[in-house]
Amino acid sequence: MTATALATAWLRGLGSREGTARQRLFVFPHAGAGASAYRLAAYLPDSVEVCTVQMPGRESRFARPTLTSLDEAVATLAPLIANHAALPYAFFGHSMGSLLAFETARRLRALGTALPDHLFLSGMRVLSGSSRTTSPVAYIRAPGSAAYGSGSRMHDIVQLSVDQRQGSR
Q: Would you say residue 34 has pLDDT above 50?
């Protein structure tokens, strides 16, 4: 399979707004869902290209063997996304898709490629053990707190994004 065919198999919607897109939104569906669960392109301006992850074993890729590990999915997705990071982009993940989006962002950082401008995660608890009562806004704004210590993975991604933006000004 060619690189282009692999990318379009995994990222439904890639290239759909080639002439008008100014940014991309990569969507990571919840466990068991296919790309058609998130038909967001109709609700967004033509300047946003929506690329929804289509996992093997789902919908149009039903005949493909399903993946058995998160690492396997991330190892495939990160380079595909890195090769399509010329436009500013964001991630949206829901439930298991939140974990996949988060881990893909970590892998992109390890590859040294551009990180998403935004990482929208829903339907999953925060990843470094803060309590249910901690506001997500407080969690993000409290870099010195135990839930958001400098050793946490989320802190590292957010800090790197901040450092990249400050360096680009």
A: yes
